[in-house]
Amino acid sequence: MRSVRGVGTVAAGVAAVVLLTGCGGGGGDAKAEGPASVTPAPTTEAWTPEPLPTTPEPVYLEGPEGEIDKLADEKGWTYAGIYTSASAFVKDICESLPVSAVDGASRPQWLAESGNLDGDGKAILQVGVPKLCPKWTDAVKQAVSGKYDRWYTGGTYVVSSKPAMGEDEETIPPGTYQSKGKMENCYWERTSESGEIIDNNFATSARSITVTIRSSDGQFTSEGCAVWKPVK
Q: Which of 26, 88, 204, 217 fits a disulfide with 30 by CB distance 3.0 to 4.6 angstroms?
């Protein structure tokens, strides 16, 4: 009976060893696996849109220049790209009026025929000239109204009170005109519509010449004379 108990004891010990070492079929070299690693879920940060850039408020100079520029911006007036501001455009006109085409056109005539009143130029000059060079305010008013004296240089003009019909034709209204200055070899003539000479003269030297152009005349031509200005 003792031998039987011994066998049972050994068997129980073997079973205990098996339980302790595990039941892996890979033999005694099998290793116990640790807990499986878990990849953390990516964190999502809240997206905040970047603020849109803002346009800074314009800064205007104090004085009449700033007043002109501020009004031009408020009205949406535009000017030639060669100028940095509306007041710069006005200042250039103020400086140009005394000298530009002074020997060939009246001041309002130069303003009206030089293209400076095109687009918003008329509005800008009507506001700006009285502020920066009030001396030329009347010239601007006359140019805007279209009622101003026209001066005439050499060339052939069709006698008419109406504006020219084409770019290749220039007109001169009937009236009395005077040319002053040091003139040498000045020739002028009045002709009929058919080109026949009505009156003419050639002055080798003169200081002042006056000519009356009739409404019945066809053309008026002059060469080598000074500027013809209407006599009032």
A: 26
> How big is the CA angle at 36 (ends 32 and 42), to the nearest 5 degrees?
165
Which are the contacts of 124, defined by CB distance < 8 A and separation ≥ 6? Answer: 68, 72, 77, 79, 86, 89, 90
When pLDDT is cut at 50, 70 and 90, the band that residue 14 belongs to is very low
Give me the torsion for CA of 64, 70, 72, 74, rounded to 10°.
Answer: -150
Give the residue among 206, 205, 199 at the shortest CA–CA distance from 178.
Answer: 206
How high is the mean pLDDT of the chain? 84
Measured CA to CA, the distance from residue 40 to residue 59 in angstroms comes to 55
SS3 174: coil
Could you identify the residue written with the tokens 């220049």? 65
Strand partners, 204: none
Task: Give the pLDDT confidence of 163-181 residue by residue, as tens digits.
Answer: 776 667 899 999 999 999 9
Q: Is 46 helix (H, G, I), strand (E, B) or coil?
A: coil
Predicted confidence (pLDDT) at residue 37 exceeds the cutoff of 90: no
- What is the rounded distance in angstroms from the CA atom of residue 157 to the CA atom of residue 152? 9
